[in-house]
Design goal:
Oligomer: heterodimer
Radius of gyration of chain B: 14 Å
Helix content of chain A: under 10%
Helix content of chain B: under 10%
Shape of chain B: globular
Number of strands of chain B: 12
Structural class of chain A: mainly beta
Largest sheet of chain B: 6 strands, mixed
Strand content of chain B: over 45%
Chain lengths: ~120, ~120
């Protein structure tokens, strides 16, 4: 079956511009996570969605970052007024449900963001 | 303090030999899950193996096995009969039990870059 998909695969933007990154989770998966992978910081959790519950935004690095999930499926991560330190690979993952430790998170191919 | 520690930034192994990638973790939660992911140069994170904190036996998945030593808080990945396609970054990750406010996100180590030599 189809895995997690993300678009665009690469994004180059100028400092100060806004960007939107999209994630399509595996069909039927109710939980969706965004992570950021950068050279200096490794893999960091950003935000989590579970069904219709309020998202857990505890990992977002600043108020320039926001995300939404429409219809319990597709998610968009928005970064406003991008800075050079936002350059990273943004990874999305989904899992069927939350509550069991064995719920494996399946990752998409990521979006490589470069802020000039 | 780091929750997941991978002490080997890089490792080399000869093709067809076995290799062990180290991972130690830190948690006070009695219920947790441990995961290993592979990230080839293409960038996608590929799930390899899972070990639950209450599992009595070490997890195995094909050529992958997890050497789980709970008292030492160690969850090393063993790859048997290495293949050239195993060359990649390998990440150990932990997921703690969901409590209020904890949503089960993965906490990753810094990774180990494995290179398989022909």
């Amino acid at each position: 079956g189809a895995g997690v998909s993300q678009s665009p695969s690469n994004k180059v933007t100028e400092k100060g511009k806004d960007v939107e990154l999209r994630c399509d989770p595996i069909s039927g998966h109710t939980a969706l996570y965004w992570y950021r992978q950068s050279l200096g910081q490794g893999l960091e959790f950003l935000i989590y969605f579970q069904g219709n519950s309020a998202p857990d935004k505890s990992g977002l690095p600043s108020d320039r970052f926001s995300a939404e999930r429409t219809g319990g499926s597709v998610s968009t991560l928005t970064i406003q007024r991008t800075q050079q330190e936002d350059s990273a690979v943004y990874l999305c993952a989904s899992t069927p449900k939350v509550g069991g430790g064995a719920d494996t998170q399946y990752f998409g191919p990521g979006t490589r963001l470069t802020v000039l | 303090a780091q929750k997941i520690t991978q002490t080997q930034p890089g490792m080399f192994v000869q093709e067809k030999e076995a290799v062990t990638l180290d991972c130690t973790y830190d948690t006070s939660d009695p219920s947790y899950g441990l995961f290993w992911y592979k990230q080839p140069s293409s960038g996608e994170m590929i799930f390899l193996i899972y070990q639950g904190s209450y599992d009595q036996q070490n997890a195995t998945e094909g050529r992958y096995s997890l050497n789980f030593q709970k008292a030492r808080k160690s969850a090393n990945l063993v790859i048997s009969a290495s293949q050239l396609g195993d060359s990649a970054m390998y990440f150990c990750a932990m997921r703690e039990r969901n409590y209020g406010g904890s949503q089960g996100n993965l906490i990753f180590g810094k990774g180990t870059k494995l290179s398989v030599k022909p």
